[in-house]
Design goal:
alpha/beta
Amino acid sequence: MTLTRRTFAVATASLAATPLMAATPRRPIVIAHRGASGERPEHTPAAYRLAVDQGCDFIEPDLVLTKDGVLVVRHENEIAGTTDVASRPEFAARKTSKIIDGETIEGWFAEDFTLAELKALRTRERLPELRPASAAFDGLEAIPTFQEVIDLAKAASQRTGRVIGVYPEMKHPTYLASVGLQIEPRLAEALKANGLNSRTAPVFVQCFETAPLKAFAKLSSARRVRLVSGDARELVTAAGLKDIATYADGVGPDWSLVIPTVDGALAPATTLVAEAHALGLAVHPWTVRAENRFLPETLRRGADMAAHGDVAAVFAALYAAGVDGVFSDFPGLAAKARG
């Protein structure tokens, strides 16, 4: 089957044609967080391809904008942590300090570079001390555009015979708007151009900010997910979830808001999933990582923080709690635990 922009959307029926909260529970989706970012540098084609091979259902590109208004894929608009920009003398003068969402950050920023300039850079592992095997792939690839990630998902769908969705996050949209770069209309246009402008398309649009999600809802029919950090518990109270249900189709909480940790061990699930489901909201918690550094004390194995602990216990607890999907840096482990 040849997947054109139109047939890519039509071919999603098996994945997304039913409502988010169907009467019969569906298998939770596995969302490859920045690709298989525990094993390859994040947000690289290699990370996305590996995630597909490991069984993910969606690949997650975080979106920022270039100086010339192109959607590119980086976890943050500050790019020194994931590229070789700091070692490029031709860009030394671009180093600066900015206030991003109330935090002062020094470095190099995507919105100060054209697409051509960003394409000259090479990607690298953000956590080399924890993921040296991934760091072995440093310098091999360029920063992808959002369109390139969509094309990769289409090609992967054709190659595997199963629909691979995209789960883009709008990064710092309020800040970007303040410097004259509107991410919401550009994302909406990209989805429309690729046959992804519908509630049944294999796409979720996520954001930590409310106003941009509401603005995006006026531009696109794609499903929306409100992300919630672990220190924003007020957003997942009964009242908070009721408000989210007025502008989003799902909630993406820090996984600790679903399965808390008490005295270094996993505790019983909270009521978040049940309360969200009662409002018709899907629940996609983030981000499950395998290294000891990111696990509760009782699930760690040995003293090396880079070693893998009993991450299967976290997946099992989340799936048992009834979540509709899980973000993970290790989508293969998430798929294996799902069974």
